[in-house]
Write a structure and sequence with these properties.
three-stranded parallel sheet; TIM Barrel; 11 strands; four-stranded mixed sheet; alpha/beta; 11 helices
Length: 315
């Protein structure tokens, strides 16, 4: 089975083939129906909204999970150095990022793996206590698309219960492992009173779909502006990563003069929380904040606006 890193890298290359969509377009759906898309502006008057993710996964990974180290361990042995790479996420990474968000005056969404939360409950609660959103990320770091309906429902609910019990926060957003949801996932999320999911790369703005005949928000994620794709201890330097995100922002800001645009940026505890990444991230956020009309929002806030906006795209 390919690693999460390989999956996202391949998806990133596929994303380069995308074309710019004009303000008003016509699109054929799988059912061959025609939907007219009218891109509007943000309901609160923002010109462009920035959505930052802070993945809380460290401590919830299985033994010998993917890491910057070569995957050449003999069977029956534990990759101990790799385990310490993950430990950095909850020992140093998240605390450093939390201080950075405070200094920058922004709030983020933290997608939390249930087992990671239970292993580091004080840190999970601190994230919420400091004003950030706790979103669900499954009970464990494992696939769910291949689970039978009831097993998948339990997998999702157990993760939610771990977050609620530990932090007091009721998650309304979801992110599947590797972004790979199954055919039943959205139905289950709607049944469990979720408001949105992020496992979609098809747009640079949120939209609404129907699930169980009810509105359900999609707040698109990113693999382009994602540290696990570009940094992870190898590949890009921090300068390359930040320059790529800056280029993404510059283009979206230009487009936002006439249409609703969202910039998504994703950081993982053991990667985005390193000293070099936090330093350049602060520089990047300050650059973005210097632009008129830009706001930073948690994903639950974006979903709430989306569900109450009559001009939002519906699919």
């Amino acid at each position: 089975m390919s690693s999460r890193r390989d999956f996202i890298k391949k998806s990133s290359l596929a994303g380069l083939a995308g074309l710019v969509i004009p303000t008003t377009t016509f699109m054929k759906t799988k059912k061959n129906t025609i939907i007219k898309e009218e891109n509007g502006k943000w309901q609160d008057g923002s010109r462009l909204v920035v959505s930052v993710s802070m993945q809380f996964e460290a401590g919830g990974q299985p033994d010998n999970a993917e890491s910057p180290f070569p995957r050449n361990m003999e069977k029956g042995f534990i990759d101990l150095p790799s385990a310490t790479w993950y430990e950095y996420g909850f020992k140093e990474g998240i605390p450093r990022m939390l201080d950075n968000w405070d200094q920058l005056g922004i709030k983020v969404t933290s997608h939390m793996v249930g087992t990671a939360v239970l292993k580091n409950p004080a840190l999970a609660k601190e994230i919420v206590d400091r004003g950030h959103e706790a979103a669900a990320h499954g009970m464990s770091w494992s696939t769910q698309y291949n689970l039978p309906y009831e097993e998948e429902k339990k997998f999702i609910k157990d993760g939610v219960d771990a977050i609620k019990k530990t932090t007091g926060f009721n998650p309304v957003g979801y992110n599947a492992n590797w972004l790979r949801r199954g055919k039943n996932t959205l139905t289950i999320l709607q049944e469990l009173d979720f408001k949105y999911h992020i496992d979609d790369l098809s747009r640079d703005e949120p939209f609404i779909i129907k699930v169980n005949n009810k509105d359900f928000a999609v707040v698109p994620y990113t693999i382009r502006c994602n540290d696990i794709v570009l940094i992870e201890g190898k590949n890009f330097s921090v300068d390359q990563f930040i320059n790529q995100v800056k280029a993404e922002f510059d283009q979206l800001y230009k487009e936002s003069a006439s249409k609703r645009r969202q910039l998504s940026i994703s950081f993982h505890d053991r990667i985005g929380g390193t000293p070099q990444m936090v330093k350049v991230t602060a520089d990047l956020i300050k650059y973005i904040q210097d632009h008129k009309g830009v706001s930073f929002k948690r994903k639950d806030e974006i979903a709430e606006m989306t569900l109450h906006d009559k001009t939002i795209i519906r699919e």
